[in-house]
Amino acid sequence: MEWLDSAACADEDPDLFFPVGTTGPAMDDVEAAKEVCRRCPVIMDCLRWAVTSGQTTGVWGGTSEGERAALLRAERRRARAEATH
């Protein structure tokens, strides 16, 4: 995880990336965290790590919990399709 030293979030409050809840103020935190991610030079490394390590909470690589879950489902479908061809 050497990329973490270059992450835009390194100097941010970690709580920003782990909001409590999925509505109201928590969604404001998710958007604020994603804004930090958008200016991050290692956003793809972060997202790759989050997906491969199964991070199910927080904002990682500019994605919310639900967005990563959708990516994982799509990847599983793709892998199954490749396996059958």
TrEMBL record:
InterPro entries registered for this protein in UniProt: 4FE4S_WBL (IPR034768), Whib (IPR003482)
Cofactor needs: [4Fe-4S] cluster
Main location: cytoplasm
Localization: Cytoplasm
Pfam family of the protein (one): Whib
Co-factor note (free text): Binds 1 [4Fe-4S] cluster per subunit. Following nitrosylation of the [4Fe-4S] cluster binds 1 [4Fe-8(NO)] cluster per subunit.
Superkingdom assignment: Bacteria
List of residues binding [4Fe-4S] cluster: 9, 37, 40, 46
This protein's UniProt keywords: 4Fe-4S, Cytoplasm, Disulfide bond, DNA-binding, Iron, Iron-sulfur, Metal-binding, Transcription, Transcription regulation
HAMAP family recorded: WhiB (MF_01479)
Function of the protein: Acts as a transcriptional regulator. Probably redox-responsive. The apo- but not holo-form probably binds DNA.
Family the UniProt entry places it in: Belongs to the WhiB family.
Protein name per its UniProtKB record: Transcriptional regulator WhiB
Naturally occurring in which organism (per UniProt): Streptomyces endophyticus
